[in-house]
Amino acid sequence: MDERKRDGMVAYLCRRMAEVGIELDDLAAAIAEDKIKQKAARYRSATGEIWSGEGEMPQWLKQAASAGQSLEHFAVERRPAQAMTEARPKVDWSQDPFAGSRLAAVQPSHLNL
């Protein structure tokens, strides 16, 4: 998004917030609460709906379970971001003639010839 569009969007949001009486502190509190909820999430749908695992199971998860999907499919992994990047294999793409195309693929370590 270019700077002019961004500035226009910020001005619009400030006007709308003033119209309905939302203060910046209210917005900051809502964002902080959402982050806490996201961290507490044990299950997440593809559309971003979450459930902590407490209380009644939400409708989206009931429907998925009744359709045969397991709860584990929706489980949120609890690995730190750093561990996730370390788990990826390091690949030297400089010698790959297909680098950047959809033909480029990482070969599993058991197939290295």
UniProtKB/TrEMBL annotation:
GO terms for MF = DNA binding
Using the record's annotation, list all stretches that form the DNA-binding protein H-NS-like C-terminal domain. Answer: 33-76
**SUPFAM superfamilies reported for this sequence:** H-NS histone-like proteins
Question: Is Repeat given among the entry's keywords?
Answer: no
Tell me if Hydrolase is a UniProt keyword of this record.
Answer: no
Q: Which SMART domains match?
A: HNS
Q: Which domain of life is it from?
A: Bacteria
Keyword entries, A-Z: Plasmid
What is the protein name given in its UniProt record? Histone family protein nucleoid-structuring protein H-NS
